[in-house]
Amino acid sequence: MFIKRSLSVIFLGIFIVFGFAGPAMSGITAEILSNSNSVSTLTVNLGDTVDFEHGGSYCCGFLCTSSFDFSFEIQYDGTSTWETIESGSYLPTSAETEFRFLRLGTHKVKLSIDCSGVSTDTVDVTVQCASTGSCNNYPIVLVHGFLGWGREEVELDYYLGSKTLYYWGGTDSGDLEKEMNDRGFIVYTASVGPVTSAWDRACELYAQLMGTDVFYGAEHASEHNNVYVDSNGNRMTSITSDTACDNDTDCIGKYTHAETGNDRKNDAGHASDGRLKNSDGDVIPKLIDGSTVNPIHLVSHSFGGQTIRVLAALLGEGSPNCTGNPGSKTCENSANASDLQEKLFIGGNTGAIRSVTTIATPNDGTNLTWVVNDLLDSLGSDSFGVDIFELLLSETVTEGLSSIYDFDIDQWDGPGTASNNNGVRDADVMIKKTCGTGEDELCGFNECTEAKPSMYDFSMWDLSPCGAAAINSWADAQDDIYYFSVTTEQAFRCSTDDQWYCELPTRTALPLYWFPDSPTDNWGSNFFSILPSTDSMGFDDYTTDEGLSDSNVGASNTSPQGGSWKEHDGVVSTPAMSKASCDVFTTEPNGEVGKWKSFGVFHEDH
User: Fold this and answer.
1) Which CATH fold would you assign to the domain 23-128?
2) Low-confidence ranges of the chain (pLDDT < 50)
3) pTM (2 decimals)?
4) Per CATH, the architecture of 140-217+260-359 is what?
5) How many Å apart are CA 314 and CA 349, to the nearest integer?
6) Phi, psi (5° rounding) for residue 31?
7) Extents of the domains making up the chain
8) How far apart are CA 323 and CA 315, in angstroms?
């Protein structure tokens, strides 16, 4: 009996001391340590990663074994809101939070812990450049590809409500610009013409970086203005006036190209002067502001890569239509343009672009343009009688889509039907089919002169191997810019049977007819016989017969450039992605100005 009573007293004492007094005895104090030392201020270089140790006194609950909540937050210089870096629950062990500082200024870092009460500790972190000119914290501008759009331009209404569809990231949860801005980068999203030429898109991008009206250049506009065509889409160079066209039964009208167009002032994602405005509400500094240059990084997807390469070449070298040295080219000048607008074409504007990054860009073109060309030709035949561009650009379609999508070809007017806002016809933008022994074959890479359509200031031509070669003949890598590329691939050659396969058909863009031919090369299809040759992207009539053999593009250094034009990501031929044919690679691990650094092949679709 005595033993039982004694044990009861002991257990009761333990329960009283630790059960009731335990919470009162809990001691919890937040403290931020760096290198095991308590700090109130810290100075780091831009890009440094700091391990913040969670110090202090952590005794929570019975025998100090209870877990407790914590949050680690940052308040950026010039802001009043706290952004969470890390949060959760942990036991009193030596925890730490790792964070990389990517924004200059003096920021506040706060650790909060909660166990029957909140304790906090705050550290002021000053982020500086390691040395003069060493900071690479220039704004990043995202430039979309063919049929793309700006950050807030496409709003979808469906049964769950309204959703913004972002080109860079998808729906609301995948807003890449906002995500990167939240992480300390400075990011903007451009909006340029979805279907127009790389030149016109580059001019529109320049206007959004400078806060000026869009100006396409006088000489450029003149080259594509008053272009008379016949019903088959041929240029009628002998016709030079509307009267002459009216008197010629073959002439159906003309194309005109204005010197200006596609203003973005006060649009979503743009300031009142047309400059880019990001998710933080910041307006991008003028690219060139008097004698001050505010450099940027340009990151692009697909056709956006050719767009930013053209912009870089125009800024550096000036217009290829002009004679003279960079800095003194004036052939694009116009009485209707300001000095600021004309500055793009004069040349000699170095230091404005720090780097160019292209993702899945057809720098050497894509033979998909030949596949699409055949498709358009088939749909426009007597069997179907559909003119795709007239349909897409008709008043019915454009007005129906105007609330969510704009084709932005205000600078163009053409001879199409009266119900077509801009008059663009398939026959005028299609690659010519006037080659071969019977002069009825699709003109290929070795027949570029004959292949050029009447309206070649258009994406259809620039995206083709012939059009890309024309761009590459003058838009080479600039000596003050770093060039980087990301290459993608979904069709590959199997090493065991030497046959071609698609890595994951359900993820490859337009898998119905981009697969290799059957039965020789597996995975064949002819899209219900719409494609007249049944050949797929990179095969037979779309490669060898068009002058793009497997050895046509050679490898260099350790880059994926080279190999077979049968390799692709569903939209763009893989060998065409890693650089422009006119340029060279660098072997430097971090890149080199005036040369390309490839990040290698990623097994992703377009």
Assistant:
1) Immunoglobulin-like (2.60.40)
2) 1-26, 382-383, 508-535, 550-562
3) 0.79
4) 3-Layer(aba) Sandwich (3.40)
5) 9
6) -155, 130
7) 23-128, 140-217+260-359
8) 15
